[in-house]
Amino acid sequence: MSVETTNVYVTNADGSGVRQLTHERRGTVSHHPSWSTDGKSIVFMSNRGGNPNRGASLWIMSASTSGMRRLTTSVFEDVDPDW
User: Fold this and answer.
1) How many degrees, rounded to 5, is the angle at CA 66 between CA 45 and CA 63?
2) What distance in Å separates the CA atoms of residue 37 and residue 80, rounded to the nearest whole number?
3) Whole-prediction pTM
């Protein structure tokens, strides 16, 4: 049985300059990122900071510093964030 782990990355439009923004532990998934309209923040869904077998919360992070905070707390799935 494999344990999925996913992270959020950014890159330049030409594919260069790949930078990993999240550094998740095994079994933690962070995905479905969405850029803010001003390009300064990214919202994404993740099961980080909780039980990896229960719901996902929405998180927001600075695109430049990767500083992040949780926006929602749920035992269900808060999915497909969008601005």
Assistant:
1) 85
2) 16
3) 0.81
